[in-house]
Every structure is written in structure tokens, then in C-alpha cells.
Fold each of these.
Amino acid sequence: MAINQNQFIDLLTQYRRENWCGIQTAEWQRRIVASIAQETEPAILSRIAPHSSLPSDPLILDLGSGVGNFVVACRKRGWRAFGVEPDRIGQGSSLSSLQIASRRLDSGAFAAATGEQLPFADATFDLVVLDQVIEHVQNQVSVLSEAVRVLKPAGVIYIACPNYLRFYEPHYKILFFPLMPKFLASFYLRVCRRDPVLLRQLTYTTNSRVRSLLRKLNVHFIDLNERGFLDKCMARKSRAATKRVRAVRMLAGWPILSKLVLFGASSYIRLREGGSEFLAFRQTCG
């Protein structure tokens, strides 16, 4: 029998307290538990919708499914969704995120597996999700290759990860210098009274790195942050547009400057955004 919402919150609180001890403050852990416990429509689906249409009965894989929020939300829609999770993040605890996820659904929706060796046949899934995952794996090429392998020819991969060119570390929730060498970052974390155990499990990611990885796999991809910003710049004038958008729109209106301005705007977004979001396709989109 599946656990109820209160039982889920209790298990999640225990897991966060044990596994993230010394990594995040108690206050941050409370905030994250409250956020995870909210049953909301997955933002991932709204990000995908303008660029790719899922079939009416999609087969979905959440690679690095954690405590199962995305899989549970998809199952409530009646979709066939599955999650894989190695649960090797942080301190380790008596309770794993995979155990919590497995207690939320009566069906066998979750499996213990690594992204480097997915236990599925080629061309199985319509959607593969890697949400805040690739920064936690050592062999990013292998994980992305596996995601492409199990994707159907007309399927889509959603990738989201932090941008380590930002002055912030999203797991520790502290000021962090971009691409700080690990030996120096470990010392810095200890000064801040944080345990560097998670740092040793991270692979720094940037927008440019994700682009490079996807090019190696010879897949078509869309940078969602870049596309969204440029669409705003090219849209008709709106009072809701920010000063930055209005400035780019005005300068891009000059034929001589247009390409240079748009290139500069794209480069700025890649450097400035706190996170990266991509859609990848096995075949070129129209």
C-alpha cells in the first residue's frame, strides 16, 4: 500500500536530515522538504510543450528520479513513467531516496540503476529526463549516450543542470567562485563549516560544456534559456519587456548590428544564467 502525504514528508525529512547533514543548513533543508512535498504540475512538461509534442500515451524515463516526484506526477496523468536512481549523493543514510520513491507507488515504477548502464532496450522511451543529474555523474558522455540510446527516434531528452560560471553553489546554497579548483573549494567549504563530501561527487557543468557533450553525440538540441530570451527580444514591443530585452530589441533592429547583437545576447545568457536547460533530439526538428 502506498504511503500517504504525511508519511512521505516524515520520510523525506529523515532522509534530508541524515544525508544532507553538514551540506545544507537545517533551515534550507526545511525549505526544500516543503518544496518537494508540494504536488504541482511538473514545470518540465510546460518547458517541453512549445518545442515537442508527446504522444497521447507516452513512455517516460526519469533518469536520476530521486524521491520520485516527476514519476508520481506523470503516473497521476495516467502515463507510463519509470525512474532509475543510484542514490549516491551526499553523506549516505539508513534511508535512501529510492526507498522513499518506491513506497509512493504500488507498482514497480522505480529501479536501482546508474545512468551509465540503463537496463532498457534501445529506442524505448518517448521522453528521457535528466533534471539536475549530469553534475552528479563522473562520466557525462556515457550517461548522455545511454539516454540517447533508449530514446525513440522521434523522442526528446530534457536536460537541466547548474551553471558553474555563476557565483553560487546551488547544493550548498552559498557564495561560490566560478569553477573553483576542488582542493581550494574543499578548504573554502570547511571554512564555511560545510562538509565537502558532496563537492567530491560533483562534476562542474557549464552551458558550453553541455553543448559540447551534445555535439559529440551528434544530436540536434535547443538551449531553452537562450531561445526564450531571443524570442522575447524579437517579439513585438511589450510594456512587460525588461530594459535588457528592450535594449537588445532596439540594437538588433539595425541590420549592420543585428547578428553581432544577437550573438552577444546569446553569449551573455550562457554565462549569466544560474542554470542550463536543453532539449535534445535524435532527429532534426523542423
Note: The longest strand covers residues 151-162.
Amino acid sequence: MTGRGILFILCLLSVVLTATTSLGVTELVLDGNTITDANGRRITVTKPFERIISLYGAHTENLFELGAGDQVVGVPRHADWPAAARSRPIHSYHDDVERFLAARPDLVLIRPMIDRGYARLVGRLEANGIVVLSLQPSSIEQMFVYWRIMGLLVGRKPAAEEMVTRFEKTVRRIRMQTDRIPNKKRVYFEAIHDRMRTFSPSAMPIFVLETAGGINVAGDAAPRRGTNIADYGKERILSRGREIDVYMAQFGPMNRPNVASIKAEPGYDTIRAVQRNSIFVIDEKLVSRPTMRLLAGICRIGKLLYPDFFMEGELAAACLPPPDGRVGNSLQKEERP
């Protein structure tokens, strides 16, 4: 092979590796006290971090859930959960590095989109001796790794294990009940309306939907460029129109649909869910963020799909009927053709 050919291959490999890193597709790894983040950084934690700035709402929620609220010295804009987070100073990746330095953090928690879009800020933080970690799990299994990483970072490993155990136990309890639901509803779960995108089958919103007893119509969706979002397209959606009992969409900064806009989409009048007005919009914070509030999302979706089976309430411990079969039997009688 010529020198020019070798140079071409090396350049191609460089592009591929750079793309992989920039897309943030590296899985989170916890090996003892050593963490590999979503951008491939590796750090070994020798002691808990004491002054943490969080630039992602899920990080903030989980830090407080772990009981490490006192170690949080900065939160992102629109930090509204838990209520105690509202009292912390606001920080943004749009801020100058001096504002961060004035807060004297020893750790700044970000996510891959910040690594990709604000590399200069990240580089200046690291140049000033501040540890930066990019964390955003891509699945439920990765979420457990993420929680354990967070527990290690703040010196609360037992609390992280308790979170994992509580989540798994609650999900098992819910599934024991929802497995009994007859005639389960088939759902198309929209991620981004104007681009006709849904979620990949392993994405957290699909986990939430299926745990609540729904069937994902777009189970054949392929992840888009290493993300949990999947291109689906109007043609495929309409081809499944007669199968879609419920049309569901998440609402957030990247997707701002409402029932009226979904109903007004050309061609959507052929979808069964649209014809029956079975269209629901749900806050992405309850289905897409790797926090304990996914349990509330399960309850919310369950109540929308099966109002006679799920009781009112946001807490998974309270939203299911007693496991004596009374409500389930009633539902079976009502839904049986």
C-alpha cells in the first residue's frame, strides 16, 4: 500500500473515532473506584467531591435523591426538582469560565451534548484543575451504573445501591400486575414530531411504556447515529395506522407538540388513535431522564392507558390496585370483546 493510501486510512480512522467520541456513545463504566464517562475520560475517585456544579437536571435530581444536596453548589437553569434545588445558584454552559471558578467547584457534571457543543468551556475548566465528567446513560442497565457512579462521587455508595434495589423492586411489582392486563394497547411513542422520530427499543421511554403495560408499535425502529432516537417517518407510521390504539408524544425543549397539532398532521386522520382521540402528551422529565421519577412516568402512562387499572397518584407504590385481582378482573370484563 502506498504512503498516500495509508494516510487516507489513518485519516478515516481518526474521523470515525472522533465521531464516536463526539456522539457520546461510549458506555459508562464503573470498575472499582475508576469511572469511564461518556466521552472516554477515566478518573479514579480517592475521596468524595464536596463542591459540585450540575449542568443537567437529572444529575441534580439524583444528587439530592442520594442525600448529597449539601454538596451541590450550582444547578442548571429551570432546576425545579426537588424544591430544595431552587435555592442553589444557577449555572449555565453559556457562562464565562470565571463564573464557574468563583464558585470553587471540585467537580462539574455535564452530559455529552455539552461536551460536543461547548468544548472550549470544558477545556478551560479542566485546565483550571476542575474535574469534569460527562454522564448520560442510554438504557436502564446503564442507568444503574450511572447511579452507582454518582454514589461513588459523593461518598454515598450504599444510598446508590438502595436506589437501584428500590427501583427494581417497584418495577417487578408493577410488572406482576400489568402482565395480567388483557388486550394490551398498542402505542406509537413519538420523540420528535416535526422529524417523525420515535425511540429505539432499548430507550428509557420505551421501558417506561412497556412496564406500564403498553406495546411499542415501533419495535423495529433502529437507533439513529448511536442515540436513543430513531428515524421512523410518516410513511411507516401511517402504514401502522390501524394498529395504533394510542398515540403518545413526549413534551420538552426538543419536541413541543399538543393534541391539536398531532390531529392536524396531514394523513394522520387514518390512524386509529387519532380517529378515537386517544392522543396523549407526557412531560419528558418523567420518561426520558434517568431518575427515580421514571416510576412516576410509569404510573402516569399506566393511568392514561388503563384508567380502571391504575389508581390516581404519581408514586408507584400508590398507583396500583391491591394485588387481589379485583380491579384486574373488572378490567378484563370491561375490555373483553
Note: The mean pLDDT is 86.
Amino acid sequence: MSRDGLTRRGFLGKAALATGAAALAGCETETPDTKGGKPLNVRYGLNLLVYTVTFSKDQLDLIPKVADMGYDGVEIPFNDLSVLDAKATREALEKAGMGMMACSIMPPDANPCSPDAAVRQAAVERLKRMIDITAEMGGEAVAGPLYSPVGYLTGKGPTEEELKRCTEVLAAGAACAEKAKIPLAIEPLNRFETYIINTVDQALKMVKTVGSDYLTVQVDTFHANIEEKDTAASIRKIGKQWLGHIHASESDRGVPGTGQVRWKEVFRALKDIGYDRWIMIESFAMDIADLLAAACIWRPIYESADGLAKDGLKFLKEMARTA
């Protein structure tokens, strides 16, 4: 999807990175637990894919809009890296008092599992570039299916050689992430979107093989609803050390709380492990044909994007209080 040349960019200095981290320090939201348990100390964010597939200077007004809804931050789609304006985005985030992280896919010409060494090198360069841009924006992490292009299927499961190649690319990305203090979080997708990592067990095996604190697991409740036997048990299995990110997505990608995801169990598991990072609502804009096709959405799944964002946040905060 990206038209970016994937050129290497130098890493920011330690002072700039420290400034970015400091800007995020005040974003944490402690949700009281009405059951007398430990409060859930998290930040709530909205993935901007509910409004746009690419985020350029023209979409900066989304940041204060989402802030006014009561969110602590946004998740910015890093699909086409060439349209991102890191400086302007950082200024908008700081003005609105918002935190940020990135979400991204890997395009076919930057496939970490490819037998072509040049394609794998392009994958490493893309990971490095996304980390650099996130640091420039004052962001916190890069998440998504960073191990394979979405929708790329071979008709069989991953081979040992494919997994080995992928591990090497992610290890290189994790080394870069550690230098910049910008963690990566790999997201298991359902079997209809990838064949490389579908489950928490597969993701955990990958991150433990790499062995870096800067490569973690992301759980998306939509995908987990398909692939996991028990999403809450999977969260506990990952534990606080390796759980790097949460996508709060309903079973039909509609408004959280209107489908089959067992939200109370999910939030109780998050409390049990002491999760204290981002919970981002993810859904998709209903007026972007290419995005809907990629997500295999063929019918309306919510009444309005603003309604999904507002009602979803209210529901998640209620779950955090009562689960």
C-alpha cells in the first residue's frame, strides 16, 4: 500500500526521545474498580482508521476531535509513510494533550517471510522507518501484523524456513526499537487474513524466540474471538511482560458492547495481570472502498463513526469499572 521509498533515516537523539516520552507521561487514566479489586490503570485511544486510511497533514483536525470525545490518544495508520507529516502531527498532539502510537501493515514488497533477501531487507528498513517516524511524533509504540502482508496466503501453514526468515527480520526490528525506546507489538490475525501468526501461542513463541523486551504481543478482540479458545485465558497466558497492546474490536467490528466479545472476562484478565498500556478501539471507515474490501466488510456495521467512538469509549470505561 505504501509508495514510500523505504529509505533509511537516522535515529533521533536521546533528548528528543526523552521529550516524547515525557509528553506521554500524563496520559494514564485510572479507572476505579467498583468490585473492590485493583483499578485498571490504562489509556484509551481511537484508531483513526475509523475515519481515514492514510493520515496526512490534511487530517490533523482529527486529533482535537478525538480529544474532545474524552480519549487519551490516537492510533495513527502508517500505511503510506510518504504522506505522514511527523512535525505537524507532533505539534497537534502536544497542543491537544494527546498520546499516540502507530499501527501498520507490511506491503508485499516488504514481506518479512519472503525468500528474496532484498524484500526482507526492505521489511527491516520499513520497520526502522516506522520507528523513526513514531519517535519524531512523540509516540510510544508501533503495532500490527508486522510479520507478513495482510491477505497474503499460500494455501498451507507457515514453513520452518518462513518462520526463521520472519524471526530474523523481527529481531532486526526489535534491535532498532530498543535503541529508540519504541516497542513493537505483533498482532495475530485470523486465518482468513494471514497464515503466519493466528494465535497468541504462535505470537508468544515468536517474541520469545527473538527474546527482546521491545518485541511484544498485541491482542485484537475481533481476531481473538475467531482464533482463541478463551480470550481472557490468552491474555493471562501472555502476562504483563509480553502484552504490548490491546485492540478493542467487537465481534463484527461494530460498536464495542453490541456483539459477542466477552468483555467482562477480557477486562478482568487485564486487571489480573496489571495491564497498564493502551486500549485502542479499532473499526474501519465505511466510505473507503479499498479499506472495506481489505477488511471484507460488505454491509454497514455501525450507524456513524462518531457514534461508534463515543459509545465505544463509554462502554469500555464502564467495563473497566465493573468487570
Note: The CA atoms of residues 111 and 148 lie 5 Å apart.
Amino acid sequence: MKAFQNTKQSRIIAAVAAAMVLLAGISFLAYRFQVFGAVKSGQDRNRSQNQALLLGDASTDTSALQVYWFDGSTVKVRTIYDSAAEKELIKHIHGFPLKEADEQALHSLEPPFYGIWISDTQGWDLTLAWSGGVWLKNDGSVYYGDMDFPSIWERMEGDEDTMTVLQFPNAGRLARYNPLFMLKSEQVIPDCADGVSLSVEAAADGTLTARIHNNSREEFTYGEYYSLQKQIDGTWYTLPIMEGNVGFPDIACILPAGESTEKQYNLDIFGPLEPGSYKLVVEGLGAVFTIY
């Protein structure tokens, strides 16, 4: 009878032990699935975040995609018109994890630079610049995210053109940290030519007030386009526009002989201007002014 009781107790102990092992196994599996789910969820969030931060709103079905290369002196651009190829490139870019960075990261960038332009679903420009693992988006956000951009450029097939550095994606923001993104003026732009002169009357709150004088005997025709130069160490450089989506109306204005007109120009499109000497350029005429 005693032996039977011992055997019964042994079976109860064994059963309890087996149940504890089973519960431990279930708990481990549950924990493992929970961790796996959290990791996968985090990966999905990161992938979604990358897509939203960089080119998530790109309109690959209605817009071409351009990839830029800049070695410090020459800017080349290749254009892709195939929607499938555009999507594949964007998918490749979104596959790399991103980490938010400070603007100070832009100080260390050196050639070569790479850039991307595509239109978003609303028709606005969506641009990226990349160098040495640092991304710069046209809204000013900066990220760390390394990728083999040189290989992408080499493998790309598409129409190739040469442009000025002023047309490089986000050149306006990059010019604040690297003078390579300013275009050196190869000619002296006078303030008066053929009886027509340009002068600056005031500059305040991001608006420049200028006057065009037509002292010639003929009508003077001018457009809405203008540019801005900055003097650095005695040399004039044309500044790139800070933001994209800046357009100039394609219209002609006529100034009769012997008359003058006052015009206002928006300086904010060139971003924050540091103290120094600047030159407004309109139709081959330049007017120098100083920001203190």
C-alpha cells in the first residue's frame, strides 16, 4: 500500500513538472512572437517613415524622374521616363533606414553630390540632395542614410544633359554651407547700358524696391525674371533660389522712352541673406546694394 502511494505521488509530481515545462514553453513562444511582432512592426514603421520623409508622395505615373551628379564643376542630369523604373529606384531608396540629423551635418559635405527631382501628386517639386551619407530634402529636413549612389548613377539609363549648379536640387540651401553652389559671374554687369539704368531705392523686410530709368529714345522691354548676386572676396556669384516651385510670369513689360518705373522684387526666394554687398540683375543691368 505504501509503495502504491509513493508511485501515485511520483506520477502527480511528474505531471505537475510536465505542465510547468509546457507553460514555460508557451510563455517563451508567446514572448518570441511578441518580440518578432514588435521588430517587424518597427521595421514596417521605419519603412513607412522613410517613404513619407523622402519620396513617398512622388507621382511616378505622371512625372519623369531626374537624377543629378555634381563633381564640383559640372552638373549632369539623367532623366527617366519609364514609370516602372522610377518606382524601382524609389523603392530602392526607401529600403535604407534613416536617422534624423542636424543642419550642421551639411557643413562637412564634399563632392560628388547627387540629387533627385520628381513631381509630387499635387504637381509640386519634390527634391533630394545626397552626399557622403547625408540627405537634404527641399523642406530643409536633414537625415543620415547611407547608400551606394555612385553605382545607381553608373547603372542609370536615360537622356543626359548638362546644367548649371543653380539648377542642382536644393542648391539654395546647400549654398549656405558650400560656395560651390554659387555660380561665378563671368562678366561685369553694368548699372547702365544704351541709355537705360537700374538703381535700388530701398531694401527692407525681404523686399527690394528698384527703379528702371529709360533715358534712351526707344522703348525698353523687360520681363519679370530677375536674379541676385553676392560679392565674395571681390568676385560676384549668382545665388541659387532657396525654394523650389518659384516661377516667373512669361510676360513682357514696356517702358516708353524718357520714362521710369518702380518695381519690387522678393528677396526671400534666395533665403536668409547675410550682411554684405549684393547686386540685383534685371535684363543685363545690375544695381548694387548693401545689407548691413
Note: Helices lie at 2-53, 83-94, 149-155, 171-174.
